[in-house]
Amino acid sequence: MAELSCEKSMYLMKMPVAFSAETFQDINEKLDIIEKAQGPKVLIVTSKHPRLFSGGLDLKEIQKKGLDYALALYDGILKLSARFLQIGFPTIAAINGPCFGAGFLLALAMDYRLSVPSAKFAMREINLGMPLTPKGCAIFKAKLNPKMYRNILIGGKSLSAGEGKDEGFIDEIVEKSELIIKSKELAETLADLGNKNEVYSCVKSSMYHDPIKVISSDDNLHEYCLKILKNNFNPKL
Amino acid sequence: MSELVQEGNIFILSIPISFMIPRVEEIHKLLDIVENHEGPTALIITSKHHKIFSAGMDLKYMQKHGAWTGLSIFSALMGLYGRLLSFKVPTIAALNGHTIAGGLIFALSVDYRIMARGKFTIKMTELGLGAVIPRGGNVVLSTKLTPSVHRDLVLRCKEYSCEEALANNIVDELVESQDLMIRARELANELASLGEKKDVYICVKKSMYYDTIDINLKAEIKKIEWKIMGKEESKL
C-alpha cells in the first residue's frame, strides 16, 4: 500500500516498488483524497523502498496470475499515467533509485522529476519481446526529445540520471540525503498553482491532448500489438 | 542503380544520389530481401558517391518528364519514408557526404545516423527554390528533430555543417571518413539482435511513429499541395 502524508499544502506519497491491481486502486483512491482537498496543493511521489524507485508492473503477481492479469495491469498503468497527465495540481517525482518500465512511464507522466545520481532509467520491453502499443508510447513521445524517444524505446539500453538531465527528462539531480528536501523546496514554489484545480487541469489537458486521446481511444494497431505481445508472453520473465 | 550486399546478419544498401520512380521501386525490392532475412538482422544505408549521400529527388528526371509527372516522385518517396519508419529491423544511415532535401528526410526516416566528418552540408533547399515541402516530409522532420531545428532547416534554409548537425542531434555520431563504414558495421552488429524478432521491432516502431507513418503511406499528390510556387497549375 502507498503511504500518504500531508504537511500544510504539501502531499507526499510513498509508493510500493511494484504495481499490482491493488496498488493501482490504492493510488487512485489516494489521488481522490488529494483532489477533494480545498486550497493550494502539490504532490511529491517517491518510493517506500530505500534504493529502488520502481521496478514497474508486479512480475511476481503476473507469474502467479498469467497473461490476462498482465494486460489488466498494463491498462492500469496507462489509466493512472493519463490521470497524472491531466491532474489539477502540480506533481513531482522524487526518484530515489532505478526507475523501470511502468514506473518510468508514471514518473514521466508527472510534471517535474528530481533524481538521485545513481538512478537508472529503462524500458526493457523490446528486449523481452513485449512491444509497447501506441498507448504505451504516447507519453514517452510527449515528454522526451526525438533522440531519447528512440533510444529508450528501441535502443534497448538503460540511461543514467546524468543523461536524463542532459536530455531534459530529469529536471534536477540531487544527492539522496537532499532528495526530499529539494523536492519540498520545489513543491513550495508550485503549490499556489494547485489552488485553481480546474485551470491547472485544463492547461494540462490541452498540452497533452494527443497522448490523452491516444490512451483513451481504441484502435486496431493497439489490438495488433497486443496480439504480438500475447504470442511472446513468457510468465517466467 | 542501388546495390545490396549481405555480410552475415548485416545488409549494406548503396543508393543512387537522387531519387526517381524506378529507383524507388528498386529500393523497395531490395528492402524486401532484408525484411525476409531470418535471424538477427540490421541494415546500413549509404551511397557510393565520393561526396554526396543523397541530393533528394532527381530534378533532371522531373524536367525530362514534365513537372506534373516528375512530381509524382513525391508520393513514391513518401511511401518509402513510411516503410522505413516502420521497418522490421534496425536501420542505420551512413552519411558519406551532402545530405539534402528529400535525401535528408530519407536519412531521418531510418533509426540511426552516422556521418563522415568533412565539408558536407545538411539542408532543405525547397524554400530557396520556391518549392513546397509536402506534409509527409514535414512530419518526418517534426517527428525526428527538435522544433527549432525543424524551423531553421525549413523556414531559413539553414545549412548545417556536420559538426552542427551533431550538436543539434540531426546525426547521432560523427566519425572520420575512413572509419564511417567500420563504425556503421559496429553499430549494426550491436543492434542486429533487436532485428531478430521482426514482429516485435515493427510493432514498436509502428506504435512509436504511427501518425507519421500513416501520413506518409497515405500520401498522394494533390494539385493544390504540390503546386510549384509562382507557376500556373496548367503548366505543371
TrEMBL record, chain A:
GO terms classed as biological process: fatty acid beta-oxidation
Q: Which SUPFAM superfamilies match?
A: ClpP/crotonase
Q: Which domain of life is it from?
A: Eukaryota
Q: Which GO terms describe its cellular component?
A: peroxisome
Q: Which GO terms describe its molecular function?
A: delta(3)-delta(2)-enoyl-CoA isomerase activity
**Mind telling me which PANTHER family this protein's record contains?**
ENOYL-COA HYDRATASE-RELATED (PTHR11941), ENOYL-COA HYDRATASE_ISOMERASE FAMILY PROTEIN (PTHR11941:SF75)
Which protein is depicted? Enoyl-CoA hydratase
- Species: Blepharisma stoltei
UniProtKB/TrEMBL annotation, chain B:
According to the UniProt entry, the coiled-coil residues are none
Note the superkingdom of the native organism: Eukaryota
Q: Which GO terms describe its molecular function?
A: delta(3)-delta(2)-enoyl-CoA isomerase activity
Residue intervals passing through the bilayer: 67-86, 92-114
Q: Name one GO cellular component term.
A: peroxisome
Q: Which UniProt keywords apply?
A: Membrane, Transmembrane, Transmembrane helix
Q: What Pfam families does its record include?
A: ECH_1 (PF00378)
Q: Which GO terms describe its biological process?
A: fatty acid beta-oxidation
Which InterPro entries does the record associate with it? ClpP/crotonase-like_dom_sf (IPR029045), Enoyl-CoA_hydra/iso (IPR001753)
Q: What is this protein called?
A: Enoyl-CoA hydratase/isomerase
Origin organism is Blepharisma stoltei
